[in-house]
Amino acid sequence: MSPAVTGAGIGLVGGLGLCLVLWRLGARRVTLLDRVAPYLRERPRTSRLLADRPTSTPFPTLERLLAPGLRDAERFLERLGSTSTSIRRRLQLAGGAMTLDQFRMEQLLWAAIGLAGGLFLAVTLGMVRGAPLAPLLLGVALCAVGGAAARDQALTRAVRRRQERMRAELPDVAELLALAVGAGEGPVGALERVAGTTRGALAEEVRRTLAEARSGVPLAVALERMASRSDAPAVGRFAEGVAVALERGTPLGDVLRAQAQDARESARRELMETGGKKELAMMVPVVFLVLPVTVLFAIFPGLAVLQVGL
């Protein structure tokens, strides 16, 4: 191994160690509140070592050992722009049972995978091409940050796909509810029938709403919560319209049919808008690829004849 490669490797390891030391010195600053809180908090009657602590990974002992460092990493991710409020909202819109701590653990795992990939590429480039140390360290850091950002973007894409599925399923669900109510079913019975015979993201929200209604929450309040758990305006209007109809005694069948018609009109408008955007996008290859080739084929025979004549 050449001295340059050996020096690059030693410099890489030393730089990473220095970065870790500086990061550790600037992290976990003890505030006055942290110092006073143990004396103001009520002491438990039993040892805290015997208390059950919630875990978000299959390795609870390792998670407790790494808990201080994980909290520092979570605060670092918070500074990058992925706020806890935004993540909680997107997790709610995604419809999964994942908590904020579990998502942060997955985000740290993706960042670790990106860091490992960046280190592998940096060592490979340093040994093969003798690249400078500073760009390699910058690339490693960008790979780690990119892994965390990729997990955040994956959550955003999952939320977008789920909201699109809910918008697509809304007209059919509203029609089925209108048919069930028109056949003599009550609001709860109609929701149970639709939830039992349909599958999809909106059916899952209906089943969750029914579970809240069975637990003692008024059906109108459960429907309002369903509207808050959706980012699609059509689904929100549907749930709020049914809740208002239940509170005011409006005929539910007419409301559901109007909601279904409104959802279909909204889907048709969105389809027309998407078609218009795709039509404009299709003009790009036509103008910049097909049209020049057509003009070239039309002009080339005339140019060839003129050259022969000359």
From TrEMBL:
UniProt-recorded name of the protein: Pilus assembly protein TadB
Keyword field: Cell membrane, Membrane, Transmembrane, Transmembrane helix
Transmembrane segments: 6-25, 108-127, 133-150, 280-306
Mode of membrane association: Multi-pass membrane protein
Classification of source organism: Bacteria, Bacillati, Actinomycetota, Actinomycetes, Micrococcales
GO cellular component term, pick one: plasma membrane
Pfam families assigned: T2SSF
Presence of the UniProt keyword Membrane in the record: yes
Compartment annotation: Cell membrane
Coiled-coil regions listed: none
Annotated ranges, domain Type II secretion system protein GspF: 175-298
Keyword hit for Transport: no
